[in-house]
Amino acid sequence: MKKSTIVSIVAASLLISPLVLARHVQADEVGSNSVEPVLATSTDQESSPDKSVSEQVASSENAEVNKESSTEGVGQKAVVEEAIDSNQSIGEKENHFDKAVPESSNVSDKSATDKGAVPEKPVADTGSDTEKKVDPREENNSATVTSNKEPGNDRSATRVSNPPKTTLADLSEVTGQARTEEDSKKEATISEAVNQLLKWASTKEGQVGSTDQDRLAFAKSLGMIDQKAKGSDPVTDLVTMVAAAKKLHAAYRAERKTPLFMNGRAQPIFPFTRGDDPEHYSYENSDIVRYVVYVETDYDTDGDGKPDLVKTFVQVPKAAVKGDYKAPTIFEASPYVAGTTEERTLEGLGLKEGGKFDMAKLYTKPDKRKAVKEVSTEEVAKATKPKDWYYVNPRESSDDYTHYDYENLNWYNYYLVRGYAVVTSSGLGSKGSDGINTTGSDLEVAAYKSIIEWLNGKRKAYADKTSNREVKADWSSGNVAMTGLSWAGTTTFGVASTGVEGLKTIVPAAGIASWYDHFNSQGSPLDTGASNDLSWLSVYTSGRILDKDDWDKIKDYYAAYITKLNELQHKDGHNYNGEYAKRDYTLNAANLKAAPLLIQGLNDDNVKPKHFELMLEAYKKAGIDPKVLLHQGNHVYPSTRWAGTTVAGQAFNDLMNQWYSHYLFGLQNGIEHLPQVTAQDNLDPTKWRRFDKWETDNKITARAYSKREDVTVSSDFYGTGENWTTRNQDAAFHSSAVSASYAAPVDRDITIKGHIPLHFSAAFLKGDKKHAHVSATLMDVSDEEFDVVKEEITYDKNGYSTRTLEKETVDEKGDWHGSNLDSLPVKEYKTHKVKSVVISRGWMNLANPDSGFNSASSSHSIDLKENEYHNYTMYLQPNLYTVKKGHRLVLTLHAFDPDYIYYADPYEVKFKTDSISATIPIVEESQSLLLRYQPNEKDTEYAKLADRILAIAKKNPAVEKDNQQDKGSGSDLKPGGQMDQQPPVGRDSMEFRKEQKVEIANLEHKENDASSKEVALSREARLPETGQKENSWSIYGMLSLLLAGLWKVISGRKEEK
């Protein structure tokens, strides 16, 4: 053979050998997933259905992998306050959870609901609610927390200074994957190890994530790697990684599919099947069982002589339905989700007010139905069609948007794949249900309570509304959590106030504690027209209209009810009365026992922060220590169907998973030892702060000072030429005819924490006494622009406002959901530059001088007399807000607040300067401030006036009559002339739902685009995923080269012959 021929053959062989080897390796990888390797062990978790949930959890946790983020300080009292940055979870720094702790009592007991005494490490008493700074760079900064780690459970303790490196060959020993000689030399990265181990543990494609980012997130959730680990880091603890992978491997292959608990939380081991694909959905083909039942309530609110049935939609992993385990339930009771009318008045529904109605009849209790037979969950689920939970609502759709209900169908998928059941109901008067919507009344609450009773076996539900075939929640453990935003957050607190058994925890987000304070504030309305009626929300959610035949049965009856409700609500003006008492859940504080995690947006102008304070106080009366999560958002749930967010670097859903794992599954992970308050910073949204209590003993005592003894403000924006759209920005720097402004410089950073009582003595001067409304704001003001998270309000020429609180995407796929679910973007609030921002505001009617903080204190009003002074305490909304050194605190007083109400007939109010004072709760040491009057540049006389001697502050100034006319007040008031700016039209409290629909439409657009791309890609030729992207022409070239070499050999031999 010629030398050149031999060279050609060798060259061709060298070129083609990597391809052959790559395919050989790929074949081994595929094979390793289908054959259980020798290293596989049986699961450590007991899955016997006879065991209680807590026993199953305990056995799982006993074998759980321990990791660095495990709780070091469980059982230790939270420090007074700490600051934490965005890349660090609460549990990681504070060490309040992630590690099993001994169980002290049943979670349903009050003593277990965060009341238990915890040993406190001595801390120096500084005399103030001092903030303790935590340097995020210090890994083990736990000076105020005593560690109680068990020997051998600390991964860091077992590490040596220079551990031997882990190679790809070491991984192959575990996974059985083919290896090369190079593998024994190459050090494995965390990403390589995670990918191989999770792939080895899985049983099918996509089960452990579709991207490296997903799989790293899964590994962190499992406790396989440290929370701060990066994919490119070298492997330093293969033993821990393998142990975690083994547990996952066993769980996927267990004969009985039960929830897997590792690292203090339920893991996403259950597969997900969509419920919004009616053409392909079936019970047989779905891993999530979906069906509808009709729960029987006690009352007959629609007058048909039978107890109302409420339609209830269930989603639960099929494993629970098959009896592998008993599933706890996350329950959202939301009147919105089954379909709304988009109308606010009877006229909008084509009905007229009128007719007689006896409210007492709503409380009629007819005899209960008699069940004729019992049918199984499986039977009902097979008979239920997707159209029962997924249908177009024409009233919520438009030409460019099709709206589907139930709108929350996919909001809780994260929890379904972790073994939770999800139950939804829109309650009385909704599509598919009986009854009428009564806007938050005790009847509405009782109907939702009935669903929890069905879940724990104490009430009947039926397969449909006519056959009387009973369906039991045989898959349910009886443990229930309630959560939701807005009205769905309201129902959580309302149902909790009944003390219903089985409700273990509530997580209300922007929930209403007392409906009076949603529509009013200390005798002053917070909306005008129909939007100030309890009835408008009932009209908005009366989904029975979506079924014409059903609606026709009750529409006249319903119109008579709404007419009566309007009458009773307003018979006492804007005072608290019996209709509001039916909707004041704080009155039932003694019944509370479900552990609370109260969520509130500090920029929420819809359901205002006062409500979380009312809930907090109610829980304290019940002897329960509530937990509070305060974010910088407005009227939003922290994580949604279209985007996620983080709490101190930890995904919000992950935090909630730990919470639910503890209170629903009985997992002892220490989450109950969270500090009472976790709050997002207003100046830097990446920073979070925490406090062991909401109240503070420290305060700023701020008194107003002016060279004048009194000041008069007018409600007449038009007559005085003042622009109502810029009133706050203007008042930040000077007073005017419509505002009195007082300012004091701040000589240090201060953090306001709580609501602000504002004391003053005022007299109504002239105008319409029926609407003697006053308002106040406390502002943060600087001559230089500063960054802050705050909702921006803009107005158009017609008086309509637009509220914007911008977010930015910080990680396009960072909100990991697990299983075969898609990851979502992580978004974070943006700051914007301002010179002034409203910290807090309050509203009050001068006819209600006795009105206090609690709703019921606003039940009495007086007849105002001109020039007669009364003493008032207005309560400005609570906030947690930091004011920087060098800024000014500015207090302003106004007549009505045009962001909420508008009255064309002008009036004037006079305030006594020396009576004006504010008690501002702060974290830092107490101090006094003098708020000096800020005159308008047109008020040239003010500078010429002599200073007054500051009067001694009076705690309770006497009520007195001033017979003197206000100097410069002029003649009787007359409406001013029209300006280019139109009168305000108030706020739209349904703006948050419009934003939701925009987000849903955008998400559907993205999903459709993604589906189109997937179809296009499927038509393309795909190469095996070997880690290399190869050009098929190079293969042909190599083969050609090899053939050419062989041809030369053959030809050469012929020539030799």
TrEMBL record:
Keywords: Hydrolase, Signal. Residues 31-47, 54-63, 141-150 have a biased composition (Polar residues). The keyword Lipid metabolism does not apply. The keyword Hydrolase applies. SMART domains: PepX_C (SM00939). It comes from Streptococcus gordonii. SUPFAM superfamilies: alpha/beta-Hydrolases, Galactose-binding domain-like. Residues 1-22 form the signal peptide. Residues 28-168, 956-987, 1003-1029 are annotated as: Disordered. Residues 91-101, 129-140, 1003-1023 have a biased composition (Basic and acidic residues). It holds the Pfam family PepX_C. Residues 657-912 form the Xaa-Pro dipeptidyl-peptidase C-terminal domain. This is LPXTG cell wall anchor domain-containing protein.
